[in-house]
Every structure is written in C-alpha cells, then in structure tokens.
Amino acid sequence: MKIGVVTFPGSLDDGDARRAVRLAGGEPVALWHGDHTLAGVDAVILPGGFSYGDYLRCGAIARFAPVMEQVIEGAKGGLPVLGICNGFQILCESHLLPGALIRNDHRTFVCRDQVLRIENADTAWTRDYTAGQEITIPLKNGEGGFVASPDTVRELEDTGRVVARYVGVNPNGSINEIAGITNERGNVVGLMPHPEHAVEDLCGPGTDGLGFFTSVLQSVLV
Amino acid sequence: MARVIVDVMPKPEILDPQGKAVHGALPRLGFTSVTDVRQGKRFELEVPDTDVATLDEVREIAGTLLSNPVIEDFEVRVEDGS
Question: Model's pTM, two decimal places?
Fold first, then answer.
C-alpha cells in the first residue's frame, strides 16, 4: 500500500510521517508540493511544520499549491487524507474540513505529551483504535485552537465527527477540547497532535500513534 | 495606477490573542485609556484601474486568499488621492 506524504516548503515532520508509514507496514511515497500528480498513492498525509513560513495564515498558501488540486479532488472521491498539525490547518483552509485553527488562547507555543480520547473509531485513520480509548502522543503547536461557528460545532458533535478530544487539560483553547475532526464520509481526518512522533518505544511517549497509520492500511485494503 | 486597500480583521466573536497581548502591554508602558485592542492585517494592492470589474476581482481575492471567512471579515476600499 502506497501512502503519499506531501512536502511543502517549510514542512518539518514529513520524514517522521514517512517513517511512521514504513513502521506500520506501508510503503511511503514522497510527494512534492509542486507535483501535478499523486503518483498513484492509496492515501495521502499532509505533515506538520510551517508551510510557506505560516505567512498570511497557517496553511493558507499551501492550500493553493499545485499538488493540492489532486489532493482535494481525491479527498472528495474518498481518498483517505490525514492532516497533522499544519496539515490540519491546510485541510481547514481547503474547506475539506470545517472550522479553523487560531493562535493558542494562552499565546505561547505548547510542546508536551498529551492524552487524547479517541471519540470516533470508524474513520479511515482510526479503525485500529476503539471508541473511548485513551492514547498519549506529542502535541506541539502555536496555533492549535480549534474554532468554528456554534452551528458547525453542534453538527460535528451530533454526527460523531469529533475524532479525538484532549483529556486532562485543554492545551490551546480548542472549543469542546476538540483535537481532531473528520468529514462526513470519514476519509479525511485533521488532527492537531502528532501520532507520527509516537511510533517507536525508543523515542517519544510510546507507540500509541501507530494506530493511525495501521488503520489506513486496512482502509485501503477494504 | 491606483491603490486598493484590503483590511482584514478577526470576526468579533473570534478570540484575538495577539490583540490581547498588545492590550496587555499598554498599562506597563503607562497607557491606561485603551479599553481593547484587536489586531488585523492591511493589504495594499496596486491595480491599473478601479473599475467595477477590478474591484470585483479584488473582492474575490480578499475572500479566497487574503482572508479566511470562517474567522475573518474584510473590507475593500480605493485609497484616496491616488
């Protein structure tokens, strides 16, 4: 199974994302922001970092990168797409996911091991978890506060589209402690914390993040 | 040539941590009369003309790239005296 990982100018976690795909048993494929094709991959990851220096707004310029035309078209057709951190911001700017991410309410960058509760284990990227399961993965962001209109938040909650929620503390002021959401079809997931940094016991808080990458391999096989 | 200004501001209901930080710094500098600060962005676009078609295009640019309608409002105006 080929999982594409897009590198934008300023991406930081593309290498770790490819590594996580490999450890999960998939074949990582490096995609470039200027590509006009997805090289036949079965799923796409938009990694964390500071694409285009976070100029204008986080993800605002990356959203119009050539490769995003294919990503957006694919996502609308059911292609599994995971946006992590900056990738989540790009998915919101692309309107593939509702809402937006704004500067943390406490105005400081946060970097910590964060407990999350998986709320929806039916998406393409969370199938290997169980609903209600608590996992610990790194969180590192300056602009991770999830906001959306009250109607949008109600719809996300009522339709089970909150994928993961912060447990213990709300690290960035996100509405309803929302750490990740999905689209109606469950193929597009945006997540602020970083599962790709928790895939080996040697580094990070454990291997709780690996499930995102093994889940999509199943989704692609189905 | 003419100049069109696009002002982008966070929506009133959206938390503006940057504006709050600026506001928080004012009393430390001895300025006590300001009750709130909101921080936005100003874009200056150089255009050959300010006809209806051009301004429509600027509004489209403002709504698609310069602002995110989920969290921001924008205003377009032609700069005076140009």
Answer: 0.94
